[in-house]
Write a structure and sequence with these properties.
869 residues, Ribosomal Protein S5, domain 2, Alpha-Beta Plaits, nine-stranded mixed beta sheet, seven-stranded mixed beta sheet, 30 helices, elongated, binds adenosine-5'-triphosphate, binds (R)-mevalonate, ATP binding
Length: 869
C-alpha cells in the first residue's frame, strides 16, 4: 500500500479513496459492507474474509493514507494489535516496556513472560537514560513505548529513546502505542518508531460502538510478518466493524479538536482549584515541552489526584454527565478510577511500586458543551466534599493544601473566569433580522425586584437559595441629547447629575472593551473621587458610580450624549432587590445604546407569561445578566448574583452561585401568596453582607453550623416543591415551618433587627410564619399565606401592621424578568429626532418625581408594548 499526502489532515480523513478504482459497479459514495465470508472464483483478489475483505481493504488503505504510512492493518481490538506485534518475539527475547501501562497491555506481557519465555522489563521509559541501562545488544528485541502514558500522563521522548535504542541495538524494534493521541496529533513513525498501533475502539472510531485495533508501519519485513499472523490467527477486522471504523475516521479531526479544547478548560479548572492535575496541555506539566516536540495537541485525557480514595470514589459516584466507564476516546465524556477499573488487573503492590496513586481519577473528555461538563464536575466535587464553596473577603488567601480542600467562592469564581479565556465571548445578536431600534430614539426598559424565600446570605457562601421575581419593578429610560453632556436623574433619590462627557475620568478606564466584563476597580476608585461622599447621598452615589462605570466601559468607543432616568416602585433598600432591578435597567439600556445587543422591534409581540413566550432571547439575557452582576458588585461588594439573575430572568428559582448560572425553575413557588411587610428601617446591604463575612472570620464554626442548617432547609424546600404528590396544605404548612427556622439562622448571623422581630411576633399572633428577606438589618419581612387562610384574620393582621407604621404588600410572585418597551410612538412616526425634548417624548413626565410610581407601568403601556425575557 502506498500513500501520497495531498491534503491537510481533516480533508484526508473525509476523502476516502477507492483502492480498487473502477471496481464498484454502482459508484457508491460510501464504502459498501462486503458482509461475505467467501468470494467465488479461483483467481480473484479475495477468496476468504479472514485473509482479506474489500471493506477492510478500503479501511486499511485509508488508515495508511491518514497515517502517512506504507502499511496498515485493521484487527479486532487494540489488544489484538499488540498480540500481532508481539508474535514477532521469540523465547529469550527481551522486551522493555513502561511502568505506567494500560492494564490489558500489562496482562498480555505478563502472559508472554510466564508462558513464552520472553523477558519483560517494566521501567520508566519516560527517562531515556533508564531505558539505555536495560538495553542488551543481543537480546533486546522490542521496546514498547506509550506517550502520554495512561493514566499518569507521563511523556516519553520517543525520538530520544529511539535514537539510543537504534545506536546500541539496531535489531530492536520500537513500538509505540499511539491510542491517546491518534495519527491526527502524533506520528511516532516520523520520530524513529518502527511500528505504531492504536486501539481504534478509542478516538479513531470515536463512538464506543465497536472494538478495533490498527497497526501501521513503513518496514516491509515487519508488515509481511504481521500480515502473515493476521491471516493465520484470523483476527482481521470484520466487514461491518471496518465500515463503522471508516465512518468514524471521517470525523476524527473535528472530534479531536473539540475534545481537546474542552479538556484544556477542564484541566485548567481543576488546576486552578489546586488539584494535582496530569495533562500535558498545562504549562506546569513536567513533560509539556517534550510532548509538544512530538505532538500537535495535548489530547483529551487527563487525570487528577484528590489524595483520598473515598473522596475520589464519591466524586466518581456523584458524576451524572461524566459516565463511569473504562476506555476513552468516545464522543461522551467518561470518568473513572483507573486502580479500580482499567488498571485493576495490575496487582495493588505493583501499582504502588509503579507510583500509580489509588485515588487517581481519570477524565476522558467528550464533545458535550464544556459548561455542562464543568457544572457536573463541580457539582461532584462539591457533593463529594472535595471542595466547599467558602467565601472569605478578598484579602484572605486561599489555602492550597489538598485533602481538606476548601475553596473560596470568590476565588473559585475568579479561577473560573480565568478559565473562560478559552471560552468564546458571548455573541449577542438581534433575535432576527426584523426591524431593530431606530437610532436616536428612547430606550425604555424595566426589571423586577425579588423576594428571597430561603437562603439569603448563605447563598453568598455557596448554599442554594430560593427566590422569585416580584410584580414591583424598576424602570429606566435612556434618551439622546443634542449637546456633549450626560445627565442622570434619580427622582426616587432626589438626585440629578449633569456633566460633560469628557469631564469623566476616562484615563482610568482599564476595560476599554466589554470582553473583560468585570468590575474595573481603578475606574470605580476614580469615580469615587469624582463623586465624593460629602457631596452625594450614599444611595445616589452608588447608583451614579455604577451608571458611569458601565457607561465608560460599555460605550468607551462610542461616547454618545444621553440622559438616563430611573424610577422604581420597589421600595429602595428594603431587601426586595431594588439595586438588582436598577442594575439590570442600566446594563440593558447601555448595551442597547452601544449596539452590543439588539432587540427586534415588532408591532405584534404578545407576552403570554414568563414561561410562555420568551421574546428576548437567552443569549441577550445572559449577557445583560453578567453586566448586571458587575453593577451589583459595585453596589453590594460581594453579592452572590441571585438578585440580578432573578431580575433578568424572572420566575421562581432555586439558585446556587457554585456556578452563577445554576438556576432551576420552581413552578410550585409561583402560585404562593406572600405578604411583604416593610419595617421602613433603613439599612445598608453592603455593610450587612460584609458583617456576615466578618462573623465568619471570627466565629467560623458558628457560621458553618448556620450555613449547613440553611442548606438543609433549602434542600427540604426544593424537595417539597418538586414533589407533585404532596398535598398543597401539607406543602404550605411545611414551608411555613421552614420559614420560621430559616429566620432563626439569620438572626444568629446578626442580620435581624428589633423592628423585624416585632413584625414577626405580631404575625405569629395570627399563626403566620415570617422571616426577614434580603440582606435584613431592617427592610422587609416575608410571610407565607396559606391558601385557605381566613380573609378576615388576614385583614386584621394587615391592619395591625399598618397601625404600627409598617407598609404591607400582598403579592404573588414569579412574573416576567427584564422587559423592553417597543415604542409605538417611535415606530409610527419613525422618529429620528435630534431635539432632546421631542425625542424624550411622552417619557419626560413619566420619569419625573411627581408621577406616581404605582402608575408607571400602565402609563408606559400607553406608549407601546413590552417584550420580556
Ligand atoms: N430607583 C432607583 N434610582 C436610583 N438608584 C436606585 C434605584 N433603586 C435602587 N437603586 C440603587 O440600589 C441601591 C439599593 O440597594 P440595596 O442593596 O441597599 O437595597 P435593595 O437592593 O433594595 O435590597 P436587597 O439588596 O437586600 O434586596 C440604592 O442605594 C441605589 O444605589
Ligand atoms: C444578602 C444577599 O444574600 C441577598 C441580598 O438580596 C446578598 C446576595 O446574595 O447577593
Amino acid at each position: 500500500m502506498s500513500s501520497t499526502k495531498k491534503y491537510r489532515f481533516s480533508t484526508e480523513c473525509v476523502t476516502i479513496d477507492n483502492p480498487n478504482a473502477g471496481k464498484d459497479q454502482y459508484n457508491s459514495s460510501s464504502v459498501p459492507i462486503y458482509q461475505s465470508a467467501t468470494f467465488k472464483g479461483m483467481n480473484g483478489e479475495y477468496d476468504y474474509s479472514r485473509s482479506g475483505n474489500p471493506t477492510r481493504t478500503h479501511l486499511e488503505h485509508h488508515l495508511a493514507k491518514i497515517s502517512s504510512a506504507k502499511h496498515a492493518f485493521a484487527v479486532s481490538s487494540g489488544m489484538a494489535a499488540l498480540d500481532i506485534i508481539a508474535r514477532i518475539l521469540k523465547p529469550g527475547d527481551e522486551v522493555i516496556a513502561g511502568d505506567d501501562l494500560y492494564g490489558g497491555t500489562n496482562r498480555l506481557l505478563g502472559y508472554l513472560k510466564s508462558n513464552a519465555g520472553v523477558i519483560v522489563h517494566h521501567i520508566d521509559t519516560c527517562t531515556p537514560s533508564t531505558v539505555e541501562q536495560y538495553l542488551n545488544k543481543d537480546t533486546t528485541r522490542l521496546v514498547l513505548l506509550e506517550t502520554p502514558t495512561n493514566p499518569l500522563i507521563k511523556i516519553c521522548d520517543v525520538k530520544d529513546v529511539a535514537d539510543r535504542v537504534k545506536a546500541s541495538c539496531p535489531d530492536a524494534i520500537i513500538v509505540v502505542d499511539n491510542t491517546m493521541m491518534s495519527p491526527y496529533l502524533q506520528r511516532p513513525l516520523d520520530f524513529g518508531a518502527d511500528i505504531v498501533y492504536d486501539s481504534a475502539t478509542k478516538y479513531l472510531s470515536g463512538h464506543h460502538d465497536l472494538m478495533a485495533g490498527v497497526v501501521v508501519c513503513n518496514r516491509d519485513d515487519l508488515a509481511k510478518h504481521m500480515g502473515f499472523t493476521i491471516n493465520s490467527v484470523g483476527n482481521g477486522l470484520s466487514p461491518f466493524d471496518s465500515f463503522l471504523l471508516l465512518r468514524g475516521l471521517k470525523t476524527l479531526a473535528i472530534r479531536m479538536d473539540r475534545q481537546q479544547a474542552t479538556a484544556r478548560i477542564v484541566a485548567s479548572f481543576l488546576n486552578k482549584l489546586g488539584f494535582v492535575v496530569h495533562y500535558p496541555g498545562l504549562s506546569n506539566h513536567p513533560g509539556h515541552d517534550t510532548h509538544f516536540k512530538l505532538a500537535r495537541g495535548a489530547g483529551a485525557v487527563l487525570s487528577f489526584e484528590t489524595k483520598d480514595i473515598k473522596t475520589s470514589e464519591r466524586i466518581v459516584g456523584s458524576a451524572k454527565l461524566w459516565g463511569i466507564s473504562v476506555s476513552f476516546g468516545a464522543v461522551n465524556s467518561l470518568i473513572s478510577m483507573p486502580c479500580l477499573m482499567s488498571h485493576a488487573s495490575i496487582p495493588a503492590h505493583l501499582r504502588a511500586e509503579r507510583g500509580l496513586p489509588e485515588d487517581l481519577i481519570r477524565l476522558c473528555v467528550g464533545i458535550e458543551d464544556y459548561e455542562d461538563l464543568i457544572d457536573d464536575l463541580e457539582n461532584s466535587l462539591v457533593q463529594s466534599g472535595a471542595i466547599r464553596t467558602r467565601f472569605t473577603p478578598a484579602e484572605e488567601n486561599w489555602s492550597s493544601e489538598i485533602g481538606s480542600l476548601e475553596r473560596i467562592g470568590e476565588e473559585r469564581a475568579m479561577a473560573w473566569e480565568k478559565c473562560s479565556m478559552f471560552e468564546e465571548q458571548p455573541t449577542v445578536k438581534a433575535a432576527s433580522t426584523a426591524e431593530t431600534k431606530k437610532e436616536g430614539g428612547n430606550i425604555v426598559v424595566s426589571a423586577p425586584g425579588k423576594v428571597i424565600l430561603f437562603g439569603e446570605h448563605a447563598v453568598v457562601y455557596g448554599v442554594t437559595a430560593i427566590a422569585s421575581s416580584l410584580d414591583l419593578r424598576c424602570y429606566g429610560c435612556l434618551s439622546p441629547r443634542s449637546d456633549n453632556s450626560l445627565s442622570i436623574s434619580f427622582p426616587d433619590l432626589d438626585t440629578d447629575v449633569t456633566l460633560e462627557i469628557e469631564a469623566l475620568p476616562w484615563k482610568a478606564v482599564k476595560n476599554a472593551h466589554d470582553d473583560i466584563l468585570d468590575i474595573d476597580h481603578e475606574l470605580v476608585a476614580a469615580l469615587e473621587n469624582h463623586f465624593p461622599a460629602e457631596k452625594f447621598n450614599s444611595k445616589a452615589r452608588g447608583a451614579i458610580i455604577s451608571f458611569f462605570h458601565h457607561y465608560m466601559s460599555i460605550c468607551y468607543n462610542d461616547r454618545r450624549a444621553v440622559s438616563f432616568s430611573a424610577r422604581s416602585d420597589i421600595p429602595i433598600g428594603a431587601g426586595l432587590g431594588s439595586s438588582a432591578a436598577y442594575s439590570t435597567c442600566v446594563s440593558t439600556a447601555l448595551l442597547i445604546l452601544a449596539k452590543k445587543v439588539a432587540i427586534e422591534h415588532t408591532h405584534n409581540a404578545t407576552h403570554i407569561s414568563h414561561d410562555g413566550r420568551r421574546f428576548i432571547n437567552d443569549d441577550i439575557a445572559k449577557y445583560v445578566n453578567k453586566w448586571s452582576f458587575v453593577s451589583e458588585k459595585i453596589l453590594h461588594g460581594t453579592p452572590s448574583g441571585i438578585d440580578n439573575s432573578v431580575s433578568v430572568f424572572g420566575g421562581a428559582i432555586s439558585y446556587s452561585r457554585v456556578r452563577d448560572q445554576a438556576m432551576i425553575n420552581l413552578n410550585g413557588f409561583k402560585s404562593m401568596k406572600l405578604l411583604l411587610t416593610n419595617s421602613n428601617v433603613d439599612r445598608d446591604a453592603k455593610k450587612l453582607i460584609a458583617g456576615v463575612a466578618k462573623l465568619k472570620q471570627e466565629e467560623p464554626e458558628v457560621v458553618k453550623g448556620v450555613m449547613d442548617g440553611i442548606q438543609g432547609i433549602v434542600d427540604e424546600a426544593v424537595r417539597c416543591f418538586n414533589d407533585k404528590d404532596l398535598n398543597r396544605n401539607v406543602l404550605l404548612n411545611g414551608l411555613s415551618e421552614l420559614v420560621r427556622t430559616n429566620h432563626g439562622h439569620l438572626d444568629r448571623l446578626g442580620v435581624s433587627h428589633p423592628t423585624l422581630e416585632i413584625i414577626i411576633s405580631k404575625l405569629q399572633a395570627y399563626n403566620l410564619k415570617t422571616k426577614l428577606t434580603g440582606a435584613g438589618g431592617g427592610g422587609c419581612t416575608v410571610t407565607l399565606i396559606p391558601d385557605d387562610y381566613d380573609e378576615k384574620e388576614l385583614g386584621d393582621a394587615l391592619q395591625k401592621l399598618q397601625q404600627a407604621g409598617f407598609d404591607t404588600y400582598l403579592t404573588t410572585v414569579g412574573g416576567s424578568g427584564l422587559g423592553y418597551l417597543i415604542e409605538e410612538y417611535n415606530l409610527e412616526k419613525n422618529t429620528q429626532s435630534t431635539n432632546e425634548e421631542e425625542s424624550v417624548g411622552p417619557f419626560t413626565s413619566v420619569f419625573s418625581k411627581d408621577f406616581p410610581t404605582n402608575e408607571l407601568n400602565s402609563k408606559l403601556r400607553e406608549s407601546g408594548h413590552w417584550v420580556f425575557v
